[in-house]
Design goal:
The protein is of the alpha/beta class and 468 residues long. It is 37% helix and 25% strand. The structure holds flavin-adenine dinucleotide (FAD).
Length: 468
């Protein structure tokens, strides 16, 4: 091929924007990135409302980010990039514990029954550790014991995934619960990876994706916003492998590509593929799914609600899972006189939370904060609601089988790469999605895409553990 290969990237979240930039920086390919929203960032995007930048729930860049990627982000963001100490709080047994947990705080605030239960579980585990089994419930039970599970992880899991812990896969426990054993859990709570610090940006978390997209564009990538991919099929154009159809309202365009790099849900890739994949693949696409989330933003007529960045609510007495105060993430004092809180409500598309009105959701925030001892200081002056249909991949028992069918089908398609959080159905962080993008570019050679190298990277991706 005398020209550079053309890569059509599906999706403009961190995985898509990272690839567009890196493909152009290395001059390995020309790029068209299709993003169906009017902005880049995906779930890790930001928007302005209430006079400030807001994210889709609490987002921060973790210190575990790959050093080369960190160097790029720091260079792109310059003075808009900052390094901060976490000021979180966890509601446990009617008390607020600082996160990262301070040992004195833990001893002072945790009630005796809970502390004794934890001590007993630790001793019992040492005497004889139960078999791990295959479910979220059995893995955590074996490693952490009943006290931590019954009071912390299981109620949180029910809210987060809407399922009983016995129905969830043990893989979820290993991926999500950053500490797999009692000793590690205590160590992580007292001294989390990154030392309880995080990176953040002046114009919201989405500034990372915006910077990648802008630099990719400056290097020649086409960033097509508002264009949703609606069909992929093998190309009839000589020299190309794929033809991608994209739609923007009533407009439609077709793009010829050597490669499709897809970061959109793998289930959707199967659905927009023509001719339709075999029935087994289509059935698999129906068998796995994502947990949705409703984000309720309430604007309060005060400078600051609390000095905490994120409040965590693992217990079952309230529906909210996390409440963040975005102004605190960059230690901003603007805008004066108001602050916005963001309440996270995991749910299913179409359920009572998903369908609730703005007013009902604002009332729920007021009720949940009051129940948790941190009532709103005044009635909200405005309410804004955003809905994410694909917030978390749900790892139900046995999900690996249909996912494997989809993954094998994708791998059998020439020059089709699926990656990113939605593409690999991976419950991971932004820096993992960016790492996948950089890894994919590393695999692209003048002779083609190095599948063996990619297989090696896929093994590395499996070791990624999500951090909150
Ligand atoms: C509530 C919440 C909190 C989180 N907190 C953190 C955190 O603190 N730190 C952290 O590192 N990570 C966090 N994450 C994870 C982070 O958001 C993801 O890792 C990241 O968004 C993954 O990027 P991605 O590009 O793989 O996927 P996405 O961000 O999901 O991007 C996929 C993109 O594809 C687009 N798309 C879909 N269909 C089409 C189509 N047909 N055509 C074109 N485009 C399409 C979507 O609009 C979207 O922009 C959090 C996630 C959630 C839900």
């Amino acid at each position: 091929m005398s020209r550079l290969p053309h890569v059509v990237v599906l999706g403009g979240g961190p995985a898509g924007c990272g690839a567009a930039y890196q493909l152009r920086r290395t001059d390995k390919a020309t790029v068209t990135l299709l993003e169906r929203q009017d902005v880049v960032g995906g779930n890790a995007g930001s928007f302005q409302w209430g006079g400030q930048w807001l994210d889709y729930g609490s987002h921060r860049l973790h210190h575990t980010v790959n050093p080369d990627i960190l160097t790029d982000i720091k260079r792109m963001l310059g003075p808009d990039f900052g390094d901060f100490d976490r000021h979180g709080r966890i509601r446990l047994r009617g008390e607020w514990l600082h996160f990262p947990i301070k040992s004195l705080d833990l001893l002072r605030r945790l009630d005796k029954g809970f502390a004794l239960g934890m001590a007993r579980d630790m001793v019992m585990r040492k005497l004889s550790k139960p078999a791990e089994g295959q479910t979220f419930a059995s893995v955590l039970h074996a490693n952490l014991g009943p006290t931590m599970c019954d009071h912390f992880y299981f109620p949180y899991a029910r809210k987060l995934w809407g399922k009983e812990p016995e129905l969830l896969s043990g893989i979820q426990a290993r991926k999500r619960v950053t500490a797999g054993s009692f000793g590690k859990l205590i160590k992580r709570l007292l001294k989390p990876v990154g030392g309880g610090k995080y990176y953040y940006m002046r114009e919201g978390y989405g500034q990372i994706s915006r910077a990648y997209a802008a630099e990719g564009k400056a290097l020649g990538a086409e960033i097509a916003l508002g264009w949703g991919a609606s069909r992929i099929e093998r190309s009839t154009e000589p020299g190309y492998t794929w033809t991608v159809t994209a739609e923007h309202g009533t407009e439609r365009r077709t793009i010829h590509a050597d490669y499709i790099w897809s970061t959109i849900p793998i289930t959707l890739v199967a659905k927009i593929s023509q001719p339709a994949p075999p029935a087994a693949v289509m059935n698999a696409a129906q068998s796995i799914g994502y947990r949705a989330m409703v984000l309720v933003y309430v604007q309060l007529p005060v400078d600051q609600y609390t000095t905490t960045d994120a409040h965590y609510f693992p217990e079952g007495n309230v529906r909210v899972t996390r409440l963040s105060e975005p102004k605190n993430y960059f230690r901003s004092t603007e805008p004066k006189g108001t602050t916005v809180l963001c309440a996270e409500y995991p749910c299913q598309v179409g359920d009572e939370i998903w369908s609730a009105t703005d007013q009902e959701l604002a009332e729920r925030v007021a009720k949940d904060t009051t129940t948790s001892g941190i009532p709103l200081p005044a009635a909200p002056i405005a309410v804004h609601v955003r809905r994410l249909a694909q917030a978390y991949p749900t790892y139900l028992m046995g999900y690996e089988k249909p996912l494997g069918v989809l993954d094998d089908w994708a791998a059998s398609q020439p020059n089709l790469l699926v990656y990113g959080r939605q593409g690999l159905f991976a419950h991971d962080n932004t820096h993992h999605a960016l790492f996948m993008a950089y890894s994919a570019v590393d695999c692209l050679t003048p002779g083609g895409f190095d599948l063996a190298k990619w297989a090696g990277y896929r093994e590395v991706f499996k070791t990624h553990v999500v951090e909150d």
